[in-house]
Description:
The complex is a heterodimer. Chain A has helices spanning about 5-10, 20-35, 50-60, 60-70, 80-85, 150-155, and strands at about 15, 40-50, 90-95, 110-115, 120-130, 130-135, 140-145, 165.
Amino acid sequence: MEFKSCFDIIGPIMVGPSSSHTAGVVSIGNFIYELLGGPPGYASITLYDSFSETHSGHGTDKALVGGMLGMRTNDSNIKSAVEFANKQGLNFDIQLQDYCPYFSHPNTVKVEAERHEYKIIAGGVSLGGGLSKIFLLNEKIVDIPISANDNVSTLVQSYTSYVKRQTSLGGSYED
Amino acid sequence: MKIESMKELLQRCEEKGKTISEVMLDMEVENSGKTRETLIDKMTARLQQMKNTIELGIQDKSSSPSGISGGDAVRVDEYVKKETILSGNYIGDAMRFSIATSESNAKMGIIVATPTAGAAGVLPGILFSLHKNDNTPFETLVEGLFTASALGYVIANRSFISGAAGGCQAEVGSATAMAAGAIVELKGGSPEQAVHAAAIALKSLLGLVCDPVAGLVEVPCIKRNVMGTSIAFSAADLSLAGVKSRIPCDEVIKAMYDIGSEMPRTLKETALGGLAATETGQQVKERMYKKKGGF
Ligand code: SF4
């Protein structure tokens, strides 16, 4: 019995078009935002497999960036996340790769994000129905499920030790 | 507490003398520890969001980022308002509300997944059609959402509700079954009739593959949502007339599971077969590739 509640069937309230390619990805971005205590100044994004093929049509990139700006799955601004990123000083680049070396699933992403002198590498998978999971933090394989209804800011509390402080700064940050 | 089959759901309704909607709400109260009021409020927020989505979508002429959908909601809306439409008022209104919702979904609008984003147009379509044509009040429509969720809950746990797992029969098929049952209960039919309607609706969509062009939730998804609403109304009508599904609903769900399990990978959201593999479908995909990252 995977589905436990009527709200698993009617819900979540989410940005379209795809619960797996869009909504679930917002949560992954949001995890990074909460973990760093705000939007990163720079993020290097790698989209794998199915994400790399259809990300533009599903807005996977916008969903991830929106999440990293603190937007939630039901935020209508996700559509314009790239413009918001420019305004808020979040610079990002996107690489596309065929297969994710860390986790076998078509809907996977890896992000290296920096905020001021802090840095985190996070890998996430979107499992469908708005459900996702963080499977990688820095070099470590983890298993942190996130649903669209979760309070992500509470969820990240147990993982703040993963955030690394960089001694020498590589980039400049505007925030 | 959990309900594992339609049979069990109906037994529960009979024992308590309650509707499917009430049984679902009771179960949710028990499982979540929250009050009825809180849960009803939460469901009402979802209904309200459906309404907002329709209102935005029905006047939005823009096309989706891919350019392969958009603008039809306005067309259907104008047609339904002007003409005496062949399908009648209930289906006509459901068509325009569902297309407005599904087009919004394609344009990254906010929707309520019912049970998924791809099938998000069916339930709002039938609910707001009942609202318009019967003056069904909001509180009653919320009850309809609880009915639909109970049916979807049983289907989801016995089979699947996503195109990637079981084809479109699992997605639009499940949504249509949920809608058919909800219509019956909102129209005063018995729990048994609601379950028959769900079975009849699901049977008519068995075998439907998931073949979205370029992997996008647009073609054929949007129109399949619209068609789902008319199947839901027809199935509800049959059931309210006293027609029964000869195959019990639980067995229909099992058949859906078996068919979905046997369905080849090319027809389960991979965009490798069916309509996605047509000449035009392939051209759209190539265009997307060229634009990759450039939207
Ligand atoms: S074709 Fe596939 S993606 Fe489209 S609505 Fe059906 S199940 Fe969903």
